[in-house]
Amino acid sequence: MKKGMQVLRAWAARGMHWVGLAGAIGVSGAAAAGDYDGSPQVAEFVSEMTRDYGFAGEQLMALFHDVERKQSILDAISRPAERVKTWKEYRPIFVTDARISRGVEFWNQNAEALARAEKEYGVPAQYIVSIIGVETVYGRNTGNFKVMDALSTLGFDYPPRADFFRKELKQFLLLAREQQVDPLSLTGSYAGAMGLPQFMPSSFRAYAVDFDGDGHINIWSDPTDAIGSVANYFKQHGWHTGEPVVSQAELGTSTAEDALTQGLEPQMNLSQLRAQGWRTHDVLRDDLMVTAMRLEGEQGTEYWVGLPNFYVITRYNRSAMYAMAVHQLAGEIARARGVH
C-alpha cells in the first residue's frame, strides 16, 4: 500500500496523475502479485516506454509489481477454435427478441446522443445501437478482467501474438496517462477489449471521442461517449451517409458462383459482378465496389452483395457474418422502434 501511494505521488509530480484512487496501485496486492517482478521482458518493455514516451522506469516497474499473470486468459485464447458456424447457426445468437427489445430501450434512453451522432457523423442510429448490442448487449457484458492483466499476460506469456499485445499494452498505458485514470482500475475482455463498444487500446486512442464534453473519454460507463466513438469509428473507416449496406441477389448462370469474393476486400465493381450473372434486388450504381457472398440460411442458400458500407462494418470485426448480423439486428431494432 505504501509503495503504491508513492508511485501515485511520483506520477502526479511528473504531471502524469492517474485518478481512481479506490483502485490505487498496490491496494490489491494479492498472493499472485509480483508475477512480473524480475522479468527480463518487462524490463525491456519498461525501457522502451521510458525511452520512447517519457515514462519513469521505476514507477512503471512498481506498477507491474501489481500486475497478475492470468492462466484463465491464456486458456481462453489458446482454446481450440469452434467449428465455423453457418449463417443459420450464427444469426440466432445475435438477432434475438431480447437483443432487439433491449436495443429499443437503449435507443430510447440515449435518443439525444444518438440523434446528434447521426447528424455529426452520418451514421444511422440503429447501426450504432446494433454494434453496442452485438458487442456487449448494451453494456451488460463488457468483461471483468483488468486490462493491465490481460495485455501483460498476452504480451509477455503468449508468444504467438506477443508483439501485437505488447503494442496494445503500450497504447493502453498512453491512454491511461492521457485520460488520467489508474490503469489498474480499467476492465475489459480477456483480450483487452474495453467498454460498451469493446475498443482495443489502439482503437480507443485513434477513434474514441469525448462526445459529452466533460473532458474525459469514458466508454466503460458513459453511453454518450461510447455512441460518439462508434460513430466516429465508422466515419473514419469510410461510411457513406445515406447509402445501403447490402442487397440480396440471385444468380443467373451456372458459373456465377465463380465470382464469389475470397476474403472481405471488394475485388470487383457491381458492373463486373453483373457480367458474371449476378442480379441484385435493388437498383444500384455500376461503379460500386462490392463483395459477393453466399450464406447458408434457414431457408437454404442465400446470395448477397456487400456494398461499401458493409465493408466498413467488417473493419470493426473481420467477419462477413458479423457484419451481416449487425446489419440485420440494426434493421430489426429500427422496425421495432418505428423507424423506416
Automatic annotation (TrEMBL):
CDD domains: Slt35-like. Residues 40-330 form the Transglycosylase SLT domain. InterPro entries: Lysozyme-like_dom_sf (IPR023346), Lytic_transglycosylase_MltB (IPR011757), MltB-like (IPR043426), SLT_2 (IPR031304). Pfam families: SLT_2 (PF13406). Keywords: Signal. Residues 1-33 form the signal peptide. The keyword Signal applies. PANTHER family: MEMBRANE-BOUND LYTIC MUREIN TRANSGLYCOSYLASE B. This is Lytic murein transglycosylase B. The gene is mltB.
